[in-house]
Amino acid sequence: MVYIPSKKIGGNGFANAAEASIQLCTVSSCHFVCDHLSTLFGKGVSFVESVLVGQQSSLYEQALVVFKNAAYVMGLDPEIAKVLEKPERSLTVRFPVVMDDGRVEVFTGYRCQHSTVLGPAKGGVRYHPDVTLDEVETLAFWMTWKCSLMGLPYGGGKGGVRVDTTKLSQREFERLSRRFFYEIADIVGQFRDIPAPDVRTNSQVMAWYVDTYNKVVRHFEPGVVTGKPVELGGSYGRDEATGRGLAVATAQACEYLGLDISKSTVAVQGFGNVGYFSAKILQQEYGARIVAVSASTAALYNPDGIDVDELMEYKVQNNGSLVGYPKAKRIGHEELLQLDVDILVPAALENAITVQNADNVKAKVIAEGANGPVTPEADRILLSKGTLVIPDILANGGGVTVSYFEWVQNVQCFQWELQEVRDRLTKVMKKAFAEAIKAKEKYKTDLRTAAYIVAIGRVANALKLKGIYP
Ligand code: NAD
Fold first, then answer.
1. Who contacts 206 (Cβ-Cβ below 8 Å, separation ≥6)?
2. β-bridge pairing 2-5 and 104-115
3. d(CA 429, CA 434)
4. Which of 192, 345, 418, 452 has the fewest beta carbons under 10 Å from its own?
5. Is 97 exposed, middle or buried (0-12, 13-18, 19+ CB in 10 A)?
6. pLDDT by residue (tens digit) across 262-291?
7. So what's the pLDDT on residue 56?
8. Is 442 a catalytic residue?
9. Which of 349, 357, 368, 394 to probe ligand 1 with, by most ligand atoms within 8 A of CB?
């Protein structure tokens, strides 16, 4: 499976985005497609060729498909594209941690700064046994576009440590976190690169990070990380921010489609920070019916609705597992994604909706709570079915927006009230959604491409104004 533009374009542009849109094709001759793409993309074809010569594409290559498509539709200067396609800096660290039984284990961690054109790099740190540099670089790449789309003065960054946190004691977890942050201390800072929580990291980890950093640099700098506990300079409303932002964007999408959100049904994949708060706010503030919820332990379904807070209470009391929840029946993980619901919120990990299952997805709206839950191939299938996909860089942009609010409060040594945070977040989400819709209509394209056009446009303009140093 590869992408080729649907029609050949003439001159130095294209009539509209429909003409320029990329379609999913099965090809028997890679050489033919390479030639075709060479004509169309000129110098920008090299990555597509690598996808075509038969290797399975990496996550970064998949992400580049989306970037290149948007760049093509908006007519981005290829010299600018060249600068923005690759990360500015990636650091790999290998560091020892003394385990509780006295053994020393060596862990691998990464910090990538994809772009610092708009400001310091910004993005979370993920702990997962399968984290790779490719994944971290891709997540950093997405952060660049997310921060730009949300109108924040940040570039994109991301970090990760290859570790299974379920196998660590609390003391080992702390030692690993502190040592990792010590290892990357040279390249972070409140005006350089500002990490935050992501999968399996939380406000406690941020507390260890900020304390470690302050010891290393020997001054107080709370703005070096966001997502901290409120007692250490965290912002009210950060925990719920990604879910709240997603709920606002979903409500905007329903309004755009003429769907009554208070009569809609919702399935949520992932019941961690993003999935829980998305479900809670959609249920409690927008009146949507949450009919299905899953976590890695189990997927649950109740057509009459699942009380999200009750389920969370059950999860906490049940050692983090959803298994055995009495008020919903157990279904398969795949089944949840294919339920006949109005809204689907994939809020777990990447690649949940792929070419294998996209055809069976029935939701009218997909709000990407996770980063990259829909592969580019699946995206095309969904587009052809008329599904409105709210892309991750928009749907989950609420988290980094409140991280930005936290950073602003830290820099100003000031604290905002919760309501102020919520009001400002709602305003930012609505503005970003409106800008993406405006681009969608201007370029006659899908919402993902439109969101990227807005985001890339801002970074490209800033880069043009700065010029290339020296
Ligand atoms: P989390 O660790 O709090 O929650 C992840 C949830 O997904 C858990 O409930 C886990 O059990 C579940 N899960 C994992 N694999 C699953 C599977 N195959 N099927 C069903 N459930 C599964 O993480 P989070 O912070 O909620 O992040 C989730 C996603 O959202 C990630 O892609 C992350 O990058 C993205 N994201 C998070 C934030 C944030 O503020 N936390 C912001 C933007 C994007």
1. 195, 196, 197, 225, 226, 227, 228, 229, 232, 234
2. unpaired
3. 9
4. 418
5. buried
6. 999 999 999 999 999 999 999 999 999 999
7. 64
8. no
9. 349
Which token pair is 286?
A: 């927008």
Contact call for residues 262 and 439 (beta carbons, < 8 A):
no
Query: 303-337, pLDDT tens digit by residue?
Result: 999 999 999 999 999 999 999 999 999 999 999 99
- Give, in order, the Cα–Cα distances in Å from 183 to each of 121, 165, 175: 17, 19, 12
- Looking up tokens 């038969």, which residue turns up? 54
First and final C-alpha spacing in the chain: 42
d(CA 405, CA 191): 15
Q: Which of 68, 158, 280, 315 is the catalytic position?
A: 158
The region, left, alpha or beta by phi > 0 then psi within -120 to 50, assigned to residue 290 is: beta
Half-sphere exposure of 258 (CA within 13 A, CB side): 0
Q: pLDDT digit string (tens) for 201-236? A: 999 999 999 999 999 999 999 999 999 999 999 999
Tokens, residue 67:
């970037």
- Could you tell me if the CB of 347 is within 6 A of ligand 1? yes
Would the pLDDT of 26 be above 80?
Answer: no
Specify whether the CB–CB gap between 402 and 124 falls below 8 A: no
Rounded distance from Cα 199 to ligand 1 centre (Å): 6
If you search the block for the tokens 């020997």, which residue do you land on? 218
Question: Is any atom of ligand 1 closer than 6 Å to the C-beta of 399?
Answer: yes
What secondary structure letter does DSSP report for 200?
Answer: T
- As given in the structure block, the two tokens for residue 386 are 């008329």
pLDDT, tens only, 162-177: 999 999 999 999 999 9
Nearest to 62 by CA among 171, 7, 130, 138: 138
The burial class, CB within 10 Å (0-12 / 13-18 / 19+), for 212 is: buried
Q: Whose CA is closest to atom 30 on ligand 1? A: 370
Radius of gyration of the chain (CA): 22
Q: How far is CA 64 from CA 59, 207, 237, 408, in A?
A: 9, 34, 33, 31
Task: Write b or e for each residue in 180-210: b if 16 or more Cβ atoms lie within 10 A of its Cβ, otherwise e.
Answer: bbbbbbeebebeebbbbbbbbbebebbbbbb
pLDDT bin (cut points 50, 70, 90) of residue 55 is: low
| pLDDT for residue 17 is more than 60 | no
DSSP string, 257-326: HT--GGG-EEEEE--SHHHHHHHHHHHHTT--EEEEEE-SS-EEE-TT---HHHHHHHHHHTTT--TT-T
Return the residue whose CA atom lies nearest to atom 27 of ligand 1: 199
279 lines ligand 1 (CB under 6 A): no
